Model the fold of this input.
Amino acid sequence: MDNQEDDSKAMILLMGLRRCGKSSICKVVFHNMQPLDTLYLESTSNPSVEHFSTLIDLAVMELPGQLNYFEPSYDSERLFKNVGGLVYVIDSQDEYMNAITNLAMIIEYAHKVNPKINIEVLIHKVDGLSEDFKVDAQRDIMQRTGEELLELGLDGVQVSFYLTSIFDHSIYEAFSRIVQKLIPEISYLENMLDNLIQHSKIEKAFLFDINSKIYVSTDSNPVDIQVYEVCAEFVDVTIDLFNLYKAQSAGVTSSGADGKEVAKPQRELKSVSELGNGVMIYLKQMIRGLALVALIRPNGADVDSCLTIADYNVDTFKQGLTELWANAVIKRPEPVQEELE
Amino acid sequence: MSANNRKKLLLMGRSGSGKSSMRSIIFSNYSAFDTRRLGATIDVEHSHLRFLGNMTLNLWDCGGQDVFMENYFSKQKDHIFQMVQVLIHVFDVESQEVIKDIEIFVRSLKQLRKYSPDAKIFVLLHKMDLVQLDKRDELFSIMMNKLGEAATEYGFPDLVGFPTSIWDESLYRAWSQIVCSLIPNMAAYETNLIKFKQLIDAYEIVLFEKTTFLVICSSNGNVVTSGAGQASSSTGGNKGAIVVDPKRFEKISNIMKNFKQSCTKLKSDFTTLVLNESIYVCEVSPNMVCFIVLNDTTQSQQLVLENVSKATKYFQ
Done:
């Protein structure tokens, strides 16, 4: 049964040499750990799985660096067969030649077992590198990896590279893109968001996972990392302020009339902030721990009417999302049912 | 501007105790992480900060190396210790030379008694995050007893102390109270705030200074007079059985300041924030921001915002 459950989830493998920062990434992205606290993390000795549910159910399996996957006793074939994505972390502040050889070996194996696997490489800990050096390191790593793969006759394999650091938003950005590749409905979502922004003076819209600040989807306009950061921080602000006075609103509810009690907890989180230059940041809770965060630029139009239109359109979007999800849900448990019969 | 509105604040303490770090966080929008870049302060760094529009805080950040210290107590003593409204003495709780720290404190008290006997004294036991959680209270009371004795001896019986750390909200709490002690018409603000709270049927209203996001006053439970210095003993909103976080003001300061900081990435600053139509954050005067939590979430947003703008004239 355990096995079947795993099958219905999209699985991401997190690999890399020892001390390259895999556990830190997991803790920071999925457990909201402060980046500085990761200094005290112990070395991981056993594979550990993080379950994480956003629009899709996701499992991130972290494999310790010192493990040898090619030992016959280790069932690596089954491991690679079930995963949707392979994330390989390279420590950019260390000698990375060994890592690249290791990576090429893993890619060769993984690609043989599962040709559909997405291969993602995080060039990690770039916070310690200067701006010029970052670009150099990236070019160097990409080139060397390419050469290694060419030697193995795997030049057709697509490998994506990301520059990341846990001290800024780049790790969230990278994970957002990795997760998006595993969502089958991503193109519909993108279309829906495009539609939404065209009709409501929205400049940029993100569909955030509230817990991890990963964005599950965005519209097709290019992502400005600064806008993403502001939106992610706005999610934090909203949640933090809401939690401060959660006890208070709960207290009011219980003292209120019986009819109200049912209605109030269902109320979705919504917050709007207006900035000095007229830009508005708009947040509304969606289904399954997601929230839509949008940047509205009224450009001289009436602010209230802008908000009303946005409200209406976002509601429509939410309905669409609910329907999309309802249809997706029917498809997913099917394999499990078949096996039960 | 009358001299009355100028307040001289002395920021003293041994070298490396964290004076410049806390100043940068509160008044220059540094994040706690950014303070690593700060070097040692040479001699005295003056900063003039406008607070609440018409009040100027002259903050004298006195470099804490022994060479400078000797200078302050000898050659520059009349220059440094004259006309002081507030002395803020910072102690590093991890310090290896506690005796020396206290000696410096006592020497400044001596000078203060001579040059400005009306000054208020605050001590901050800083870097509390480095002390184990269960030992903090004990350490704090031991230190405060020692310092209290010393202060009383030199004619400053009303010593107020805070345990602080730049890594949590305790710093905001301490500085809010320090700055509040300088605001003359606090009582007027408070009565107006309570009236306003009743008018719009709010659960709580808190006033913040706009640039620093320090708490000025709040409608439930006065932050200023509860300044016994014990962070744990503070019970802000004692309204029936509802339990609210006693440290919420500082947390709001922290959250909003971070948000303000992130707004600069969009080349703008924030004006209003409405959360679930029950929490409103908006400007109530050019230099104050109010944080309103409503009881009744069915009020229309326009009505609330209109009410706030009408209230502006009571908070000048």
Summary: Chain B has two domains: 3-180, 186-315. The domain at 3-180 of chain B is CATH 3.40.50.300 (Rossmann fold). DSSP finds nine helices and eleven strands in chain B.
